[in-house]
Amino acid sequence: MEKENIAVGLDIGTTKIVAMIGKKNEYGKLEILGVGKSKSLGVARGVVNNITQTIQSIQQAIVEAEENSGYKINDVVVGIAGQHIRSIQHTDYISRSNPEEVISGKDIQLLIDQVNKLAMLPGEEIIHVLPQEFKIDGQSEIKEPIGMYGGRLEASFHVVVGQASSIRNVGRCIQSSGIELSGLTLEPLASSDAVLSQEEKEAGVALIDIGGGTTDLAIFKDGIIRHTAVIPFGGNVITDDIKEGCSIIEKQAELLKTKFGSAWPGENKDNEIVSIPGLRGREPKEISLKNLSKIIHARVVEIIEQVYAEIKSYGHEESKKKLIAGIVLTGGGSQLNHIKQLVEYITGMDTRIGYPNEHLAGNSSEVISSPLYATAVGLVMNSVANNTQSAYKLELRDTFKEVKPVAQPVVEVQEPAPIIENNVEEKKAKDTETTGEKIKRSFFDKYVDKIKDFLDNAE
């Protein structure tokens, strides 16, 4: 069979794990070949806290994706998330020995390697070094320095830092599931790739990805990633509040939230009531939809205010940094009724719900183009780009393996328990700026190799 550029993204979320297989069609759009979804049992707030359960959930999602598509999964691009992620702005420079030579990719790589040596807090590692703007001999606002002349090459960087142990735990889960780790991507960057247009990134936009355990933020301006943050609250805290406030079990609270919940209490009349079956022969509970919306409203306001504080700390209120395109909401939490209106009311910024259908082929199912799958779609896009670029890098060729057709699933798993349809997810995305793209790849390939070495030595 002729080799196809098939890519696999694995979104390890707090509420669900999604394995998605896709390829680019002849029109350059992403065609989804198969999706596998399982309930995430070993992840809390985006961080693995039970290796065994996470491996089982990953295998379940992988097998389902393989059965749906008829392909065998060998390697995946995985999203990195969690409350341990933080970002810093850093400026660095190198003095070139021969200013008469044009600046090449080697010079930029040298500068990036220098940033990678920055001293971090104990247990932290740099996972992303994204060049923003360059300065050559004092001339600023240069986006593409390759091919120019100069002695002093300076750049401002967006550096993403994470807990080394958390990242290695993810690597261990992937390896123990019998698949290769071919790339890592920060999840807010993956989501932004799937749902934002280039025009929005130019104008200035904040992507808010409301997942099950965390809410992720990625801010773009002038086409460049400017700020990322992970807030350790998501849809699960809303469910917990409903569970406590109404004295019901979690499954009922989740269904109440997705079927009847609203972020705007004024929408419900006082006499609107929903009846919940009692446990084991007990009397059914009657819950006022107005009270339900008040509980949801209080928690959503708290989440949005924390995100808005991050947007303000980036400097949105300065005229040069103003985010003209406003806010894009995605993730499972964005499907909550009237959340768009509430976000506009709190922030005063234009808001829309982000669907990952812009880059999908026209025949994609409605389910896949839901905000729920934004991160998974972004990770597959990242994996396609990864595979395409690796074809031109012979020294990295062995990291990517052909995905072969399969008749049988490789792992035996029990029938999954029923899952509430509106489970929320954890997510994120990658920078599309050309220079950053090339540089980020080579660094990430090294980083993935580093994790592989660590895991092999730990055997």
Give an account of the 3D structure:
About 35% of the residues lie in helices and about 25% in strands. The chain is an alpha+beta fold and about 450 residues long. Mean pLDDT is about 85; it is low at about 390-435. α9 links the parallel β17 and β18. The longest helix is centred in the middle third of the chain and has 26 residues, at about 290-315. The strands form five sheets. A five-stranded mixed sheet has the order 3-2-1-6-11. Strands 14-13-12-17-18 form a five-stranded mixed sheet, with helices on both faces. The chain has a four-stranded antiparallel sheet with strand order 7-10-8-9. α4 crosses α10. The protein contains eleven helices and 18 strands.
